[in-house]
Design brief:
- The complex is a heterotetramer, with 2 copies of chain A (442 residues) and 2 copies of chain C (487 residues).
- Chain A is α/β, with parallel strands linked by helices and 442 residues long.
- Chain A is 35% helix and 14% strand.
- Chain A is built from 13 helices and 15 strands.
- Chain C is an alpha/beta fold and 487 residues long.
- In chain C, strands 1-7-6-5-4-2-3 form a 7-stranded mixed sheet, with helices on both faces.
- In chain C, helix 11 packs across helix 14.
- The longest helix of chain C has 39 residues, at 327-365.
- The radius of gyration of chain C is 25 Å and the shape is globular.
- Classes of the chains: A alpha/beta (442), C alpha/beta (487).
- The A-B interface holds A 35-36, 39, 64, 66-67, 71, 74-75, 420-421 and B 35-36, 39, 64, 66-67, 71, 74-76, 420-421.
- The complex binds pyridoxal-5'-phosphate (2 copies).
Amino acid sequence: MLDALGADSIEDLFDEIPAPLRAGRLQQVPEGRSERDAVAEVRRRLEQDPALTCFAGAGAYDHYVPAAVWDLATRGEFMTAYTPYQAEASQGTLQLLYEYQTMMSRLTGMDVSNASLYDGASALAEAVLMAVRAQRKSGSRRILLAGSVHPNYRATAASIVSSQEIELETLVFCESTGRVEMAALQAHGENEYAALVVQSPNFFGGLEAVDELTDWAHARGMLVIAVVNPMTLAVLKPPGAWGETGADIVVGDGQPLGLPLSSGGPYFGFMCARQKIVRQMPGRIIGRTVDLDGREGFALTLQAREQHIRRSKATSNICTNQGLAVTAATVFLSLLGPQGLQEMARASYQRSAELVAALTDVEGVHAHFSGPRFHECVLRLPVRADSIVDRLAQEGVLAGVALGYYFPGLENCLLTCATEQRSAAEIAHFAGALRRVLEEAV
Amino acid sequence: MLDALGADSIEDLFDEIPAPLRAGRLQQVPEGRSERDAVAEVRRRLEQDPALTCFAGAGAYDHYVPAAVWDLATRGEFMTAYTPYQAEASQGTLQLLYEYQTMMSRLTGMDVSNASLYDGASALAEAVLMAVRAQRKSGSRRILLAGSVHPNYRATAASIVSSQEIELETLVFCESTGRVEMAALQAHGENEYAALVVQSPNFFGGLEAVDELTDWAHARGMLVIAVVNPMTLAVLKPPGAWGETGADIVVGDGQPLGLPLSSGGPYFGFMCARQKIVRQMPGRIIGRTVDLDGREGFALTLQAREQHIRRSKATSNICTNQGLAVTAATVFLSLLGPQGLQEMARASYQRSAELVAALTDVEGVHAHFSGPRFHECVLRLPVRADSIVDRLAQEGVLAGVALGYYFPGLENCLLTCATEQRSAAEIAHFAGALRRVLEEAV
Amino acid sequence: MLIFEQSQPGRRADSQRSDDGALDGLPDEYLRTEAPGLPEVSELQVVRHYTNLSRKNFSIDTQFYPLGSCTMKYNPRGALRAANLEAAQGRHPLSPESASQGFLSCMYHLQEMLRDVTGMAAVSLSPMAGAQGEFAGVAMIRAYHEAQGDTGRREIIVPDSAHGTNPATAVMCGYKVREIPTAKDGDVDIEALRAAVGPQTAGLMMTNPSTVGVFERRIEEVASIVHGVGGLLYYDGANLNAILGKVKPGDMGFDVLHMNLHKTFATPHGGGGPGSGPVAANERLRPHLPVPYVLRTEQDGQPVFRWADDAACPQSIGRLSAFMGNAGINLRAYLYALMLGREGMHRVGEFATLNANYMAKRLAEAGFDLAYPKRRATHEFIVTLQKQAKTLGVTAMDFAKRLLDYGYHAPTTYFPLLVPECFLIEPTETESKEELDGFIAAMASILAEARENADLVKGAPYTLPAKRLDDVRAARELDLVYQPPGE
Amino acid sequence: MLIFEQSQPGRRADSQRSDDGALDGLPDEYLRTEAPGLPEVSELQVVRHYTNLSRKNFSIDTQFYPLGSCTMKYNPRGALRAANLEAAQGRHPLSPESASQGFLSCMYHLQEMLRDVTGMAAVSLSPMAGAQGEFAGVAMIRAYHEAQGDTGRREIIVPDSAHGTNPATAVMCGYKVREIPTAKDGDVDIEALRAAVGPQTAGLMMTNPSTVGVFERRIEEVASIVHGVGGLLYYDGANLNAILGKVKPGDMGFDVLHMNLHKTFATPHGGGGPGSGPVAANERLRPHLPVPYVLRTEQDGQPVFRWADDAACPQSIGRLSAFMGNAGINLRAYLYALMLGREGMHRVGEFATLNANYMAKRLAEAGFDLAYPKRRATHEFIVTLQKQAKTLGVTAMDFAKRLLDYGYHAPTTYFPLLVPECFLIEPTETESKEELDGFIAAMASILAEARENADLVKGAPYTLPAKRLDDVRAARELDLVYQPPGE
Ligand SMILES: Cc1ncc(COP(=O)(O)O)c(C=O)c1O
Ligand SMILES: Cc1ncc(COP(=O)(O)O)c(C=O)c1O
């Protein structure tokens, strides 16, 4: 090939690079290894960490992933394709995404869905930006954000929207229920907001008064942004049915739908909305259409919202999304169907109730908040929760998430969770270990 | 559907079965479980056994299997197809098998290969039957079988061929070298045998005098059946080049070519042979041909040898073979190529030399046999080997195979092995543990 | 293009290298003089080549595949996951029993479930496919007779509808084969059987439901005829799927049998295998089971599992493989059996039968001839295209090839041999009514094509990676191994 | 057929059930009144449906896919294996540091390698794709200026060849975009740049090699012009593959950058993602890196890894995701970097460049116009089909669609915007010469077709699952969600 180029060496091909810029030897990169050695090295490192039975949730849940899900998603034709720009050569991915959009719309009770965003937290940021665009007329750049929304979601939204001079105002949650009570709204009744953000089940696992909150916001011309766990929508009222007219934008993280925990990603953010604001949506959207022969086919549509067409006027800068994760979730939802997903939700609810019963049976452990919750619960321990989490890890248990890090004042609080995967034996082991550890601690 | 059948219930469809035969409730079959629970149950049982670092060989070797191998082999189109009877709808499997046949022929130095048999041991049995058929003229039904052939292979051959009044006569191995010495042949010079069976590397890891043995057998009108480890053929002289004219039938187990240990299977048996006896071969054979348009295509051929055509006159009763294992091996051989396979062989040789050096450094441990060997070695311990194997399993080491079970008199002997996967640290751990355990024992 | 044709000297998948070792101490006489002629290609080339090859196959995952006698049903991916667990794949076959109790308990539990399903006394999981299971069973019959000193029995009786492996097996076990005809109604011709049996009869091999897709109604009579002359009954369990949880072969009077786990118990066929063909025996034949299998003993009230080996089973026919058969396939079957459970097993046979009867009915309505129109179909049934072959010149082969163009794999053709121009159709329990209806519509459409334009059907397939292949040339000009041009 | 069209009430994949629990204690007002309208299908239906859907895609595993700017190279399956290890998949993102040292050490080691490759001071792995990396980088530029009290800088300069994400990012960060033209030789128009910069300049975003497939030779001058007015330089690392191990962006004068691990470091694109877009910063910008990333500390001489969080990094732009970005993708990149190693990284850029230059040369010989014929190609290059569009009426789009019929994925078309009728072609280092030659031959053949029968090319593709799709209808008659007929 060098001959064809009339070059003596590959080095010649780099002759346009100014000599002083040529790099020397890489210092931090070791010598290359074979696949075998490299995999062994990664395994050695990872297996140095104890394998923990997972009672943590807080946005990432240990649900069972059927074997077929990733067997299908990792087929080369799905896994090694690019974004479906050449529609004729991408009908597989495109049809799958259209099916995905349909599933998500039905789960959330909304009109439309995009083809994914990065994760739930960044999806919330995009929802805020979208709401502000949709409310351009009113001109408000203020958002009322429930304090019971996942703290990392709130932080992410803040990092992303703050450069655009959007203000996020926190709506405090009630100290005894952990949720937003209607009374708290009074402090905000006077201001003009573009939108209200509510998460339900909220970060603490509690169910918000979604109907009242939605109606309150709509009565004031605000849009309602719902943050939800899609698994719970198998049984919980979908945001499209919140209050009189339903939420306007729904976002969340798709992780519970077939994505392994994997230290936090790849998961995917989903976003559904009312048809009338679809042109304000960020991200890819697939439409059904016909080909030259009039046969059904699928294509990217409404691309005039996107950066590759609109550049600085795009609704978002997002380009690569979380396609393969969505592929897995689509297969997951097809496999479970309405019944399977409902059972998963109900079993998670029940296992979690059993967990709370077993743990609050331990001396000094109490549920911190009252009121209905789904499959997560905040427990108050007699000692700092972070030390208990560390200590129980030595017993093979990931007890949950210590809340002091996020909420000063809740240092003794532990957010704990059970999914359908947690067995009675595992719950009993957790409770037994907690009892022992607390006895030690006292 | 019942309506269409005019039936009231599915039970009606079983009305031809005499009532007394209808089964009651199954007693040993528990209630059905979900995929999640069933996988968890199998995992629970299997993980109750300690994970051992593998220094056992004896026909099953712990080589690295590149990730691509099974990613490709488990593609639905390979994994869920039947035997390629409908050639037009099976060109993928058929071409792959043709490539496999080519690879195996080249590795063994033989003219032809079939598309697989069950495993190495049963392949040996088939080779014996094939040799007897090929020697029909001479009429001999006696086979001379080296005592250094894998004992389970010899036992399998015996179970399978004995009903056909074929006699397997053992050729003793030398007590000091563990291989067949030419002197031992004298006892058999007078008899008429259909074939001589030689394994090299033999069960003890030793290299037989394949050239002399082959020539000796051929000089007496015998066929030579070679039993080989295909991985070693990356560097060892292929049976097709043994002696003056090469072996006539070559069999072995394909496990080292990309098959996980998996408690003994599925692996696959391979069989290669001289062109002139191809019509005596058992099992499926793929041929390259053309289709109606004259384009290259592949099909099962020489089917008139097989049970589905010839029934009681078939060369064997084999029907289902080990297709998917062969698929994996074909991908494996393509991925490694000549260089990769040679490196794997050389690295295994070297790791094994290091292992033997480390273990014989332990007080009281000696190599039991002299002479060249490949990547296995028989060590003599100062105590019974089976107790050491049990004891070292508690240290996380599978030390090898205790030989007393197979060879009375070798109770203190351990057959041990290292592949390219064994690290210096693992070898040192084994040696250290052995030293400790032997000190305890004394 | 063959992978060999993509080879370039020196090219390789670099990350598949090993630290090179030296062959110190190995004399040259043992070494090969040139590297083996394997392809020299990159990892991408390998992945692309075999991915694209796979796409040339029909398979259950891509098509309805109603191949009679082969039970091409969906095999849950969960079974594969179990077999792929590290704890499964990493276990060496000769690990000591002391470190294998978990694995052995799985195998034992599977043996017990299969024992229950078949109504037999004991099970050995070691045969590696159906044909090896048959070998084991017939060898056990022989071992039994020999153990009784009864050495004059030289014949195995096989119905003419039997699968080819049955007579081939009998011969491998040193027996002569005597064929008996099938009666018009699909059952065994009882009179012919009576005439065939005698003191020379070692046993009878039978499939029930038989390969003609009906349940042998006089099975008890058949059993008593064979037993009456001192013969034994072998059950070819390839069709067990039809009666799982409904009838136990042991209750029908069979003495020994094999199962095809790769048909009934969740292993996709892999383009030709691997399978697993466990044998089950009643008390009489139990001592002759092939080794190894798993025994349950107790120690201090705790179960301890052990291998039953030659020493424990001196009358065994011996071992049939280097280790313990296709253990990984047995593990898949175990997972599958756990998932199905008691109720699930009943459902398998029920829905397999429902689907087959539905298809038979609809195809008959569409103008096709059933081979046994008066009989209930079992899990499969036969359509004979003799009429079409005669009147339209369109054979079963032509219909089969044309079905491929419609996106359906063809049923089994020309087997069993006794029914001319036959299609043996087995939809299995895992297919939906929509697929069955689609297939039936395709058959009707092909029939219409055959009437209007027979050549269209006779030239099929048109849309596959290859047109009909020249089998004669394949057999005459044998090309079994690639030779580069000019070599 | 859509999966919804295969749905039947009550049908399900039975083995995917959960032991049903009750929603005791949940008031009705929280519950949905009817089950969500998900498809009701069997497991086989799911497997067959999605297997067959996948077969309608082109992909790297099946085709040459020379999509410029996207680096569609082979990503070793070993990387996927690492990410699929149980120890990787099972780790909860909020596991305590005390139980995560192994995982954190992997992330730290990857940070270090990327730091070295880019020549920067520190790396954060948290951005989830290139565009989010860009966001992080530009937000850091803003944070830096603000920290200096320098609040008057309102503009980001972007070359007209820039990827769409660049201007979109600048706007998301609250900046105005100022575009500067590209000179005839493909380099930035230096005079225009000089004219554009000023006290309002917050920074410049640039790709080098640029998206026109050449290396910006005056990069040092560009850097000094921007730095001269107090602006900062952002490096869009989408094209890092071209110069891996050859040039470090830090040495070119860039202050902050992102990498697309899903292009350069082994993650196949997944039909749209996921990716990972780590940012790297020099000392000046380091305090503003997004959290969390991994810090190495020592305790009793032993390394202890910790998360750098808001508390540790008070000047950070904050977090960009709920947890720590696409950790699993980072793990794949880590495995890939270990496999490549130092030498391998050099080879990546070398062979990517060799392949691109070879193709450029051959295509020019075949009669195609290169956009920058006097320049060396980098890892990609541009062919302009303007001549063909004018004289034959066959556009880049037509060539692209026709290539699909030849079994090749089309290159990137109509990007960058400044070159009319362009093909941006990136063969990558993992393709063999045979594939490149095949593609070149296809292009030559299409050119001949275009001359002889332009309509043939304009009607393409013919052999794919769909012909050209009606995009206008897709956008006008929005059908984004399936509605069953009659609803
Ligand atoms: C009726 C019958 N018996 C026996 C066999 C042989 O089984 P296997 O292919 O597993 O050897 C088959 C398989 O095709 C069969 O259909
Ligand atoms: C030059 C360039 N910059 C930025 C991006 C955006 O990267 P991502 O798609 O990962 O967001 C791309 C990807 O297409 C690109 O090619």
